[in-house]
Write a structure and sequence with these properties.
heterodimer; A: mainly alpha; Cytochrome C Oxidase, Chain A; two-stranded antiparallel ribbon; 2 strands; about 60% helix; about 0% strand; disordered N terminus; disordered C terminus; B: alpha+beta; Immunoglobulin-like; 5-stranded mixed beta sheet; 4-stranded mixed beta sheet; 4 helices; 9 strands; about 45% helix
C-alpha cells in the first residue's frame, strides 16, 4: 500500500460496500449515521428484551430494573449497534462469515467532501482531524461546566445549583477534560503527525484506527447524558472512590461504562501506534533518528497499554458492586475499600504521564524548529521519556499518603515520586538549552511552547511539595491540589495541545491561521490562566478543601477574583475557536513547509497527498539537523506545490 | 555579544525574578497559624522546598526570557542557529544536581514524617468516627460519652484512631497540619501535638456526598487543667 495506489485518482475507487449513493436504500442501509441511529435503537431494544427475558425467567422481582436495563441495553448493546450501523465492522464481518475476501479498495480512505468526516474513515489524517474536532467540542462542554461551578463558587453558600448537581458538574468537568479532551486530543495530533513523521502511508491498522475514534463520542455522550439520569450526574468525583460511588444515583453507572468506551479507544489507538512505530518506519529511520514526538507517543502508548486495563477493572468492580451486588469494595461483605484506590491509581497516575509525554514531544518539535537549532541532548531526551515511563509505574500510592494504606509504603513511594523530577528536569533544562543562542521565531506555537515550559515548571515544583509526605498530609485534598493539577494539565498539557494545533494547522488544513489573533489568544490565556489558578495554591494551604460548594467567608474575596479570572480564561478560548474556524474556511493558502522544519510531514504538500508520500523517503540523519551545512533528515523529491487543493472544509 | 556582559544580564534577570517570588512567598502568609508541633515541622520542610523552588523557577524562566530577548529574530529571517547537539558535562550536571536536591528533600521529609508519627509514651487516645456528615469523638475510657466537639489539652500528644461508618471521610484541622482519612472497614491513625490554645475547625477533606462542604466540627485546645475539668463534665 504505497505509491502504486496513488497513481489512480482516488475518485475512481469503486465503493463496493455501499449501495449506489443517493437512493433511499443507500441512506437506510448503507454504512452511515442513519443506519447507525436505527441500529443503535434496534440493539437497545434487543438488549432490553434480553434483560427483561432473563429476569422474568429467573423470577426476579421487579422484572424492570432501570439501572440494569440502562447498563446492558443503553450503554453496552446500543453503542455496539451504532458502531455496526456506521460500518465499523463491515469489512471484518464480511471476512467472519466466510465470503471471499474483498481486496482493500481504499474506498473508505481520505476526505473528498466534509461528509467524509462523518463516516468511518480509515485515513489517519482524516481521523486525526475527527479526533481534534470532537475533543475540542468536549473541551467546550467541560469548560462551560467549569464556568458554571465557578459562578457557583463566586461567593460562599449555595447560589445556583443544588449539592448533587454541583458535585456532578465538578466530576463531569474533570472526566470530560481527561478522557474526552487531553488524552484523545493528543491521540488526534499524533494520529495525524506520527505516520507522516515515520514516512509511512498510514497507521498499521487503519480500520482499527477508525473504530478507536468512533468509540470516543460514545463515551462523551455517556458522560454528558448522566445529567439526564434519575438522581443526576455522577457526583463522586472523577476519581469515583468507593464506597461513595457505590451509593451514588444512577449517573454513576454512566461513568463506569463511559470509562470503558474511552479506555477501549485509548488501548486500541496505543496498540496501533506501537505496531506502526515498530514496523512502519521508512528505510533509514532508526529509533535514534525518530522525531521526539514519535518517541513520546511510543512511551505513552506503552503506558496506555499496560495501565488502562486497571481503570477499566476498577470501574467494572464498582459497577458490579452496584448492580450485581458483589462485594469488591464493601467492607460489610468482606470487601477492601483501599483496594479501589490502589487499582484506580495504578492507572491514574501513569495517566498523568499519558497526558504529559505527548506534550513533551510536541514541545520538542516546536522549540527545535522555532529556535533553528538541534534539540539539545537528543538521546537523553528520549531516554528521559523511558525513565519517566518506568518510574511512572512505581509512584501511584503518592495519591494515598493520607488514605490509611500501609505506612511502610509511604517513604519508598515518596522517593520514586521525587526522583521523577530528575528525568523531567533533564527535559526542561534541555529545552532551555535548545533556546540558547538560537534564532528564535516567537510565533504562536512557540509562545505556547515557552508558556508551557515555564508553567509546567510551576506544576512540577508544586509536585515536589506534594511528593514530600509531611507537606502532602497538610495539602492533600485541598485547593492546593486543584492548583497543582491545573498547572500540570492546563499550563502543561493544554498549552502543548494549543502549540500542536497551531503548529500543524497549516499541514492539516492547507491554510494558515491568523498569527496576530493567535498571539492575542496566547497572552490572554497565559494571564487569565495564572490569575485563575495561582491563588488556588494559597486558599488551599490556608485551609480550603476541594470539591466543596460552600466555604469560609475568609476565602470569599479570593474566590470571587478566581471566578472573574476564570471567565476571562473561558472568553480567551472563543478567540481560538474564531481564529481556527475562519482560517480553516477562508485563511490564506499555506506553504508546504511554512516553518522550514526538517521532519518528514513538512516535506509533502499541505495537506498531504492521500497516501502521504509519492515516493518512499530514505532517512539519512536525525530529525533536527538545523544549522548543519548540507544536512538533511531524509532524501526525497521536494513537495510539488499547488498539486493538491486544500481540503474543502465546513467547520 | 561579550560573554561576560551576557552572563551579568542573565543573572540580573534571574535575581529580579527570584526577588519578586521571594516577596510573594514572604509577604503573604501561605500557611495557617500553626497550632501544633507537627505543622511547625511541616513548615520547616515547606520553606526548604520553597527556597529550592524559587531558585529553579528563577533559573529556568530567566534563561527563557533572556534567550527570547537576545536571540529573537524577525519572521523572514531564514538563517539557522549554531548546530549544538548537546554537552555531556552540562547534561551530567543537570541530572546530578536535581537528584541531590530531591534526595535531600526526601531525607528531611522522611525524618519529619517519623517524628510527626511519634506520639510518645503519654499520649491521649481519641477515637474519631466519621459519619455523613458529622464527626464523633470518643475519649479513652469514655466509650459511652461520644462528643461532637473536639477538646484537646495543650502540649500533649493525642493519638487519633479513625474509622468511618459509611463512606471515606478525612480529618483535617488546617492549623494542626495533620490529616488522615477515616475509612470504613479499617482503622487509621494520626498524631497531633497542639502547642497553641484556641478554637479551630475540623474540616472533612474527602468528598463524602451531598453534605461534604458542611461537615465541620469545632476543635478547642485548652490547658491540661481545663481539659480535665471538661472531661469530668462530659462524664457527668
Amino acid at each position: 500500500m504505497t505509491a502504486t495506489h496513488h497513481d489512480t485518482p482516488a475518485e475512481h475507487y469503486p465503493r463496493r460496500f455501499e449501495p449506489p449513493p443517493g437512493t433511499l436504500r443507500s441512506t437506510l442501509f448503507g454504512p452511515n449515521l442513519v443506519r447507525g441511529v436505527w441500529m443503535a435503537a434496534l440493539f437497545f431494544g434487543l438488549g432490553t428484551l434480553l434483560v427483561l427475558g432473563l429476569r422474568w425467567w429467573w423470577g426476579w422481582d421487579p422484572v424492570w430494573h432501570t439501572e440494569v436495563v440502562l447498563a446492558v441495553a443503553a450503554m453496552t448493546a446500543a453503542p455496539i449497534g451504532f458502531l455496526a450501523g456506521i460500518g465499523s465492522f463491515d469489512y471484518w464481518l464480511h471476512y467472519f462469515v466466510g465470503r471471499p475476501t474483498e481486496p482493500e479498495d481504499h474506498s473508505g480512505h481520505g476526505a473528498r467532501s466534509w461528509k467524509d468526516y462523518f463516516r468511518v474513515n480509515t485515513d489517519h489524517k482524516v481521523i486525526g482531524v475527527q479526533y481534534l474536532v470532537t475533543t475540542f467540542f468536549f473541551f467546550t462542554v467541560g469548560g462551560l461546566m467549569a464556568m458554571f461551578f465557578r459562578a457557583e463558587l463566586a461567593k460562599p453558600g449555595l447560589q445556583f445549583v443544588d449539592s448533587q448537581t454541583f458535585n456532578g458538574l465538578v466530576s463531569t468537568h474533570a472526566t470530560l477534560m481527561i478522557f474526552l479532551f487531553i488524552i484523545p486530543a493528543f491521540a488526534g495530533l499524533a494520529n495525524f503527525a506520527v505516520p507522516l513523521m515515520l514516512g509511512a502511508p498510514d497507521m498499521a491498522f487503519p480500520r482499527l484506527n477508525a473504530l478507536s475514534f468512533w468509540l470516543l463520542p460514545i463515551a462523551g455522550v455517556m458522560f454528558v447524558a448522566s445529567f439526564l439520569a434519575p438522581g443526576g450526574a455522577f457526583g463522586a468525583g472523577w476519581t469515583g472512590y468507593a464506597p461513595l460511588a457505590e451509593g451514588q444515583p444512577m449517573g454513576q453507572t454512566f461513568f463506569n461504562m463511559g470509562v470503558q468506551w474511552a479506555g477501549a479507544s485509548s488501548i486500541m489507538t496505543a496498540l496501533n501506534f506501537l505496531v506502526t512505530i515498530i514496523t512502519m518506519r521508512a528505510p533509514g529511520m532508526t529509533f535514534w533518528r525518530m522525531p521526539l514526538l514519535v518517541w513520546a507517543n511510543f512511551t505513552t502508548s506503552l503506558l496506555v497499554v499496560i495501565a488502562t486495563p486497571f481503570i477499566a477493572g476498577s470501574q467494572f468492580f464498582v459497577m458490579f458492586d452496584r448492580i450485581l451486588h458483589t462485594d469488591f469494595f464493601t467492607p460489610e461483605g468482606g470487601g477492601y475499600v483501599l483496594g479501589y484506590q490502589h487499582i484506580f491509581w495504578f492507572y491514574s497516575h501513569p495517566a498523568v504521564y499519558i497526558m504529559m509525554l505527548p506534550g513533551f514531544g510536541i514541545v520538542s518539535e516546536v522549540i527545535a524548529t522555532m529556535s533553528r537549532k538541534p534539540i539539545f541532548g537528543y538521546r537523553l531526551m528520549a531516554l528521559s521519556l523511558i525513565g519517566i515511563l518506568v518510574l511512572g509505574f512505581s509512584v501511584w500510592a503518592h495519591h494515598m499518603f493520607v488514605a490509611g494504606m500501609a505506612d511502610w509504603l509511604r517513604v519508598p513511594m515518596m522517593i520514586t515520586t521525587l526522583l521523577i523530577a530528575v528525568p523531567t528536569g533533564i527535559k526542561v533544562f534541555s529545552w532551555t538549552a535548545t533556546l540558547w543562542r538560537g534564532r528564535i521565531h516567537l510565533n504562536t506555537p512557540m509562545l505556547f511552547a515557552l508558556g508551557f515550559v515555564t508553567m509546567f515548571v510551576i506544576g512540577g515544583l508544586s509536585g515536589i511539595y506534594l511528593g514530600s509526605v509531611p507537606i502532602d498530609i497538610h495539602a492533600s485534598d485541598t485547593y492546593f491540589i486543584v492548583a497543582h493539577i491545573h498547572y500540570v494539565l492546563f499550563g502543561g498539557s493544554v498549552f502543548t495541545i494549543f502549540a500542536g494545533v497551531y503548529y500543524w494547522f497549516p499541514k492539516m488544513t492547507g491554510r494558515m491561521y491568523d498569527e496576530r489573533l493567535g498571539k492575542i489568544h496566547f497572552w490572554l490565556t497565559f494571564v487569565t490562566f495564572n490569575a485563575t489558578f495561582f491563588p488556588m495554591h494559597y486558599v488551599g494551604l490556608r485551609g480550603m478543601p476541594r470539591r466543596v460548594f460552600d466555604y469560609k467567608e475568609a476565602f470569599g474575596d479570593l474566590n470571587f477574583f478566581i471566578t472573574i479570572a476564570s471567565f476571562g480564561l473561558g472568553a480567551s478560548f472563543i478567540l481560538f475557536v474564531y481564529n481556527i474556524v475562519t482560517s480553516w474556511t477562508r485563511g490564506p493558502i499555506a506553504e508546504s513547509n511554512p516553518w522550514r522544519a526538517q521532519t518528514l510531514e513538512w516535506q509533502v504538500t499541505s495537506p498531504p497527498p492521500i497516501f502521504n508520500f509519492d515516493e518512499i523517503p530514505q532517512v539519512v540523519a536525525g530529525p533536527y539537523e538545523y544549522g548543519v551545512p548540507g544536512a538533511r533528515h531524509a532524501v526525497m523529491s521536494p513537495a510539488k506545490e499547488g498539486v493538491q487543493e486544500p481540503e474543502e472544509v465546513h467547520a | 555579544m561579550p560573554v561576560a556582559k551576557g552572563i551579568v544580564q542573565l543573572v540580573a534577570i534571574g535575581l529580579v525574578i527570584a526577588a519578586a517570588l521571594t516577596a510573594v512567598a514572604v509577604l503573604f502568609k501561605w500557611l495557617p497559624t500553626s497550632a501544633s508541633e507537627e505543622l511547625d515541622r511541616i513548615a520547616a520542610i515547606y520553606w526548604f522546598v520553597t527556597i529550592i523552588s524559587i531558585a529553579i523557577f528563577s533559573l529556568v524562566s530567566a534563561v527563557v526570557v533572556f534567550s527570547v530577548w537576545k536571540w529573537r529574530v524577525s519572521e523572514d529571517d531564514d538563517r539557522d542557529g549554531p548546530p549544538i547537539h548537546g554537552h555531556t558535562g552540562l547534561e551530567i550536571l543537570w541530572t546530578a544536581v536535581p537528584a541531590i536536591l530531591v534526595t535531600a528533600i526526601g531525607i528531611v521529609s522522611a525524618v519529619v514524617l517519623a517524628r510527626n508519627a511519634d506520639a510518645g509514651s503519654n499520649a491521649l487516645e481519641v477515637e474519631a468516627i466519621g459519619q455523613q456528615f458529622a464527626w464523633k469523638f470518643v475519649y479513652e475510657g469514655d466509650d459511652d460519652n461520644p462528643t461532637g466537639e473536639l477538646v484537646l489539652p495543650v502540649n500533649r500528644s493525642t493519638r487519633f484512631t479513625m474509622s468511618s461508618v459509611d463512606v471515606i471521610h478525612s480529618f483535617w484541622v488546617p492549623n494542626f497540619g495533620q490529616k488522615m482519612d477515616a475509612v470504613p472497614g479499617i482503622e487509621t491513625e494520626i498524631v497531633v501535638t497542639p502547642d497553641r490554645m484556641g478554637e479551630f475547625e475540623v474540616v472533612c477533606t474527602e468528598l463524602c456526598g451531598l453534605g461534604h462542604a458542611t461537615m465541620r466540627a469545632r476543635a478547642r485546645v485548652v490547658s491540661e487543667a481545663d481539659f480535665e475539668a471538661w472531661l469530668e463534665e462530659l462524664r457527668a
